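Protocol step 4 of 5: obtain the predicted structure for the target chain.
Materials: sequence only (see below). No template structures provided, no constraints applied. The aim of this step is simply to have a reference model before the mutagenesis design in step 5. Sequence pasted as it appears in the construct record:
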Amino acid sequence: MRPRGVAQRTPGDCVVVTTSFPAGPGDASGHFVAAEVQRRRAAGERVIVLAPRTGAEPSADPDVHFLPAGDAFGWPGALARLRERPARLLGVVRFVAAARRELARRPSERVVAHFVVPCAWPIASGRERLEVVAHGSDVRLIERLPAPLRRLIARALAGAEVRCVSDELRARLERALAPLCAARLRVEASALDLAHAPTRGEARAALGVDVATRLIVLVARLISSKRVEVALRAAALVPGALAVVVGDGPERARFEREFPGARYVGRVSRPEALRWIAAADLLLSASTLEGAPSVVREARALGTRVVALAAGDLRAWSGRDPGLHVLEARG
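Step 4 output (structure tokens):
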């Protein structure tokens, strides 16, 4: 990594501020942000990244700067970590202060802020060339904030271009920030990087899964809001199928007791997660809180059929994609 002085500016720099970014090869954290950075660089932009240091081995990329943030950020997400230990908020404050200092050294660059809070507000507030990317967890947080704070955020976004990853999230964000929302809202799904994803046969060979195995895969953080137990109950109804759960979290021990027939591989690298998705006959997603779930988009891009509960834009997508089956949630 470059010393804290950070690189000399060049015309056309784009600075990406994010609370989640891969610390190194194979790290799945913020892979959708990394995919966008890669896409922009391929188009000829110089992209500088500001992200919180999470304790993992830092990237060797000289244009990726991991800033001090205590232990506020990292798996399984900042909100979960703050609920577990509210004192971690001090780490958020450290990251905000460090990121604002870095941006102050770069007055002319365009800023792309992934996540409205805290990357757009308060870190990038007042920037003339500001693009904001709103994600599902981000919008849910804003909806829960008190009205005075939502008004403050709406004013901070005035004049910014706000990119929402689904139509549903765009509508919800507009309602949450009304009537002061003067930002330019548009919809664009997050970038995906599947350039090195294997074929189904390659994935099964690498994972040691027999070609005749009926493989059902679930990919999620094992927390209550992801409703993984709903997907596991559905998988248990398929005769002879092997259900594999990719992910970890506080609910894992309970799932292992209640659904002992499933296989739990834990939190794995991004390449291995993509291998499981590519190898599957079917991917199940039972969360109803997603705006534009990346795992569903990845599965369909890899040719894996998906059954999901209605969430975000999935119902609209299913009308154009016969390999995506969307069911209404009950209870």
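Step 4 remarks: Confidence is low (pLDDT under 50) at residues 1-11. The two ends are 49 Å apart (CA to CA).
Proceed to step 5.
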